[in-house]
Write a structure and sequence with these properties.
It contains 6 helices and no strands. It is mainly alpha-helical. It has one domain.
Length: 162
């Protein structure tokens, strides 16, 4: 099942929250982070986790690098991921080569075969949205929630179960 209005549950297995299904949360997060540079620092984590939790919305050929990016983030932290993503962007802008520089991800194994595990202990539709914001209780709390979603995503993919 894919995220679709009115179904009450999306393809990641999560029930809809007050804003709707995971896609509604995802697009609301993307919109809010455009006006908030502190929130935007988790952009890569948000995108990777969302697409890995909803692979029907992703390009299959990128899921492996997205999985490795989340693993790098969980292992080395946000600053390390921001350095790697800045390197990838700079590399692409200068036309050095197309595609990702996989060297930063060499320590992390490929995405497990067999497809999406289908459900996750933490997801987007569980994100609190108060006073019109995902960061109403602070950026640190928002970062902790995004971190928990990233952990749940990698955990489910590596264990094959929710």
């Amino acid at each position: 099942m894919t995220d679709s209005p009115g179904t009450g549950q999306c393809d990641c297995g999560a029930a809809a929250g007050p804003l709707g299904e995971c896609a509604d949360y995802y697009y609301a997060i993307l919109a809010e982070e455009q006006a908030d540079p502190r929130m935007y620092q988790w952009h890569a984590v948000v995108v990777c986790a969302y697409l890995l939790q909803h692979p029907s919305r992703a390009h299959e050929k990128y899921l492996d690098v997205q999985f490795r990016m989340l693993r790098l983030y969980l292992d080395q932290g946000l600053d390390a991921l921001l350095r790697v993503t800045a390197h990838q962007v700079a590399r692409n802008k200068h036309g050095v080569r197309s595609g990702y520089d996989m060297a930063p991800f060499a320590a992390y194994g490929p995405i497990p075969q067999g497809g999406s595990p289908g459900s996750f202990r933490a997801g987007f539709s569980g994100m609190p949205f108060r006073d019109g914001s995902f960061v109403s209780d602070g950026h640190a709390a928002y970062g902790e929630r995004i971190h928990a979603i990233a952990e749940a995503t990698v955990e489910s993919w590596t264990s094959g179960t929710a």
